């Protein structure tokens, strides 16, 4: 009898512990979900299962691009006026290395600014789109914009190639460490083995119209889709707001216009099954991804919000950026928790990190 009681108690305790463990934040055994808020002078790290701010990784200036290795144990963060890349240990939540991309030339100072960056899946290299110029005495000479490759061990630029102006986002193709999707006025692919950049699909120069895309908030760290809000002007003059998403496994690009007048959106996500899309700024939408019908339209819960993201299992919506609030909601746009962060934020990224 005693053995049966002990066995029942053991099962009950196990279930109780699981119910309070924030199960939606753990994607598989040995992986833990973390939320990263790009703030001012720091990268704020949140455990969404509690929820609680668990670390503030200090850097210089406002933070921008953030990307991760495949296992999530290392991140690349852009900060310091877009001049410095920081390599972050996401297990210890500390800066491992700092790469300043300004320097000297034979005739003056080399001024480089990064407008899109990504770390390789194995963490050995970084890729960045830079605008650059040479500061001479009383002269600034503009130099061609380029994509550069950086060896993270030596911190040296190993290769570069000229690239179209306007690039602002880079995400690696899933299960392919040699293909980098590159978004600018159009979508390109960079073959890092052959070191060739090719146009894949028109965006601003699309077949059916000219689409503008806000590229400040790329996605795909915790899912197989990168998604953005869109505004398309069609040949007849009609203007439609919507969203576009790229399958990072296949490269397939989809776009769906919303059935509402444009209101302005900063970022967008698509659920794992491509059934629903979500977008945010002053309005917060839930959209039928097949028809573009806006199923639900509510006000952003804390004023203007920049970033929307999703838990790795697709069951929770995360909001942040534009203020110092981190918000957890369900997929029907019902707010469950609001947490204050140390600084105002720019964006939020979600990553399942190998323990």
UniProtKB/TrEMBL annotation:
Domain of life: Bacteria
Signal peptide: 1-23
Keyword Signal: yes
Keywords: Signal
InterPro entries: Host-pathogen_enzymatic-act, Quino_amine_DH_bsu, WD40/YVTN_repeat-like_dom_sf
Coiled coil region boundaries: none
PANTHER family xrefs: DIHYDRO-HEME D1 DEHYDROGENASE, PROTEIN NIRF
Protein name, UniProt field: DNA-binding beta-propeller fold protein YncE
Source species of the chain: Aneurinibacillus thermoaerophilus
